[in-house]
Specification:
The complex is a heterodimer of chains A (114) and B (114). Chain A has 114 residues and is mostly beta strands. Chain A is built from no helices and twelve strands. The chains are: A mainly beta (114), B mainly beta (114).
Chain lengths: 114, 114
Amino acid sequence: GDSVTQMEGPVTLSEEAFLTINCTYTATGYPSLFWYVQYPGEGLQLLLKATKADDKGSNKGFEATYRKETTSFHLEKGSVQVSDSAVYFCALSDQGSSASKIIFGSGTRLSIRP
Amino acid sequence: DTAVSQTPKYLVTQMGNDKSIKCEQNLGHDTMYWYKQDSKKFLKIMFSYNNKELIINETVPNRFSPKSPDKAHLNLHINSLELGDSAVYFCASSQWDSGANVLTFGAGSRLTVL
């Protein structure tokens, strides 16, 4: 079945460092890909998405490119802030409808030191 | 106004008891979900309803019974609670947005079984 694998955390960086969180997927067909973020004590919220190969999703300085050839959707940010400390989830949606199943990776905890 | 609201936020109970968690969304979405998040932050889909019809039913013990009285509400009832049921349960709803099925999550309901 479809699955998402992301790098294990925790990831600890200093403020203004460059961030990469790796994500790869296995899917039949052409899934949509997402990054969600979960701040402490809250539910997940959508950070960015991409719906087809070579699409780049971006939001709040984060970006990720849908790479079909490497089945990857790595999350990057050029200069992280303390406020970016959270758990980040890579996810895929297995079919093109509002009733599709959305499968999450195991999450990567990110901590940013001032 | 809260888009996806779930109650209660915290629930502490004894093994063997029966409990319910309620969820309501005011976004007009057709599809709603229950996810379980364990202590390691792993997020697993449990159920999904589309316009009050069950469309996803993962391998979940039949002690868990979802009910959707209308498309704005999806409740979760759990019978004979066990220690392993302790987790955070997230309700979510989804809409089709620019070619992808995007989830909006509630804040979660933390269940502790003693």
